[in-house]
Amino acid sequence: MQRAKAVLKEWLPPLVIAVVLSLLIQTFVAQAVKVPSGSMLPNIRINDRLIVLKLKAFTEYKHGDIVVFNHAAEGRDEVRYVKRLIGLPGDTIEVKDGALYRNGQKADEPYLTVKMNYKFGPVTVPDNQYFFLGDNRNESYDAHLWPKPYVDASELVGKVVFRFYPFNRIGPL
């Protein structure tokens, strides 16, 4: 009994500290997420594991960033999405002739492998809102299909910075 108390006294404080630190990091700094769908194919695959940087005070979002966010499209419960940031507040977005146009200019999207087979917009992204599309443009359930195509800044979880699984595809994103 004395030995058990000694072991508990030795190991309990470091375990408690480790659990608290882990919770703090996951809540405020970074989080691992598992990709649930093929909306980002071929760049991000189903079941890929990603690290999301959640430090909002130090995160400046820009066109082309891959972002994790929570969003409730009309008629659905809130879902966690992994999509590419296409439109910032004030941007005008349009899809025509198989390509994305941002503010009247054809956007350079080297990560796409297939032309879009739909038309969308033009729409202007409101203040404090963002516009997202999946890389698998013709198969992705994203802003071009949502009744309310914008994601509020408060719904953003963070920017994807790294893929850590599968091991043969580890690297920054």
TrEMBL record:
Main localisation, per the record? membrane
Catalytic positions are S39, K83
List this protein's GO terms for biological process: signal peptide processing
Q: How does the record classify its membrane topology?
A: Single-pass type II membrane protein
Q: Name one Pfam family in it.
A: Peptidase_S26
Q: Name one GO molecular function term.
A: signal peptidase activity
Tell me its EC number(s), please.
Answer: 3.4.21.89
The UniProt catalytic activity note for this protein reads: Cleavage of hydrophobic, N-terminal signal or leader sequences from secreted and periplasmic proteins
Q: Which positions fall inside the Peptidase S26 domain? A: 9-165
Q: Which domain of life is it from?
A: Bacteria
State the family named in the UniProt similarity comment for this chain.
Answer: Belongs to the peptidase S26 family.
The protein, known as: Signal peptidase I
Q: What organism is listed for this UniProt entry?
A: Paenibacillus flagellatus
Give the organism's phylogenetic lineage: Bacteria, Bacillati, Bacillota, Bacilli, Bacillales
The gene that this protein is the product of is lepB
